[in-house]
Amino acid sequence: MKKAKVFIDKNFIVGEVDKRIYGSFIEHLGRAVYEGIYQPDSPFADEQGFRKDVLELVRNLNVPVVRYPGGNFVSGYHWEDGVGPKSERPARLELAWGVIESNQFGLNEFMDWTKKANSSAMMAINLGTRGIDDARNIVEYCNIEKGSYYSDLRRKHGYEAPHNIKLWCLGNEMDGPWQIGHKTADEYGRLAEEAGRIMRMVDPSIEMVVCGSSGHGMPTYASWEATILDHCYDQADYLSLHQYYGNQENDTPNFLASSVEMDWFISSVISICDYVKAKKRSKKTINLSFDEWNVWYHSQNQDKKIERWTQVPHQLEDVYNFEDALLVGSMLITLLRHADRVKIACIAQLVNVIAPIMTSDTGAWRQTIYYPFMHASTLGRGTVLHTIVNSPVYESKYGDAPYLDSVLIANEEEETLTIFAVNKDLEEEMEMTCDLRQFAGYKIVDHIVLTHDDLKAENTEANPDNVRPGSCNQSKVEKGILVSVLGKHSWNVIRLKK
Ligand code: AHR
Question: Would you name the residues annotated as active-site residues?
């Protein structure tokens, strides 16, 4: 059995967990909206056409914020097409994903849905084909009470009270050549600065996320961030990061080591933000919004066969396996370890499209990745402590990768300690010890484990509970020292309470 030591000190704090790091994402793409969250002709639909079975699974995930309506979709979108009487809404060619968009679901339906999901909106605006005028109009429609054209239009549409959306994304992946209205860093930086400035004139209380690179592999990565922030530092509250990983080579150790790279990515984006801060002699710190992250690769070949201009195709429907859940667990740990700067994160996406939740006409079920996300979101709230992990390492394409990923969160109010830990060793158990003598009187209340003999095991409609968490007795505290035995390739949640 391998051994690892975890060191913490209750005075060595990374930061408070901003609950918005447990955000998610709904894009008009594939079956995320239609047949995902909205399906009026389904036996599971409520009076507004929202799927009740999905709402329940989303509420259990405890998702405080949902990014909407895209993604690539937003860069060609006219939000006006999706408001007002449904019979008058136009069907449009949706160029980002090559489908027909019916517009039967739009901004107001989304706001109603977020309330039922116990969530809130993170609204993206179109800076691909549109600009400053549209940016101010949508804020007026959403956030002004009454007495102006767009606020009164919202009231005419049946929404007297403003939606009061606080969080706005200024475009999506504008560095990507695939993006509708793709821009250079100078073009985007200037546009984001002006759009943000005018949006704040309409509602000074809003917060703004500006587009970072679509991934750290982009040729313009780093210079994109530095250039756009040079232009729009004053308007930016958060800089976005996007990154997906896959196991195309069927090389599980390297796949699981991807969190090493994610950690480097976050640190390097922080450095760039702070470089621009220094250059500008600014007192303001830009925080990070990791607003697209997940595993994405299973569906890529299948998606090449989708015919153009169909409606609601099965698109990006990755069926996740057990090893994907392990990496999702490690990615969550990585986000938490940067709680001082990562304030928002969105697992992409929420339903049917690279998602923890899947639907069919007969019901909804949880994919493997649902579980680590649910554990982190429901139990990982409080103060992240600097968690030094002294673990054996293995060689990976990202350099040395620790077999153990871990983070500890202390919640003073609830008098709990929560440790998330992934043992990436495919052959051996890991003994993890942690000196908790500073936390006198804390006792183990649970050790939750997600594991499976088969790394490729999936949850499907026919077998929805193939991979599911259980409890074990593999943790004890003796004389203030926590000793946990973590099964080979396992996700662990160790809970202590005073
Ligand atoms: O989440 C799927 C797509 O991935 C999004 O539309 C886009 O922003 C990213 O490239």
Answer: 173, 292
Q: Judge if the beta carbon of residue 292 lies within 6 A of ligand 1.
A: yes
Q: Residue 101 forms beta bridges with which residues?
A: 92
Nearest-CA residue for ligand 1 atom 5 is 71
Where in the chain do CATH 3.20.20.80 domains reside? 18-379
pLDDT digits (tens, 9 = 90+) for 134-171: 999 999 999 999 999 999 999 999 999 999 999 999 99
pTM comes to: 0.97
Q: Which CATH class is domain 18-379?
A: alpha beta
User: Architecture of 2-9+386-497 per CATH?
Assistant: Sandwich (2.60)
For ligand 1, atom 6, the nearest C-alpha belongs to 71
Query: Could you tell me the distance, in angstroms and rounded to a whole number, from the CA of residue 245 to the centre of ligand 1?
Result: 13
Q: What would the DSSP string read from start to end of 320-386?
A: -BHHHHHHHHHHHHHHHHTTTTEEEEEES-SBSSS-SEEEETTEEEE-TTHHHHHHHHHH--SEEEP
- Mean pLDDT of all residues in 294-307: 96
Task: Take residue 302 and report the two structure tokens written for it.
Answer: 């299948």
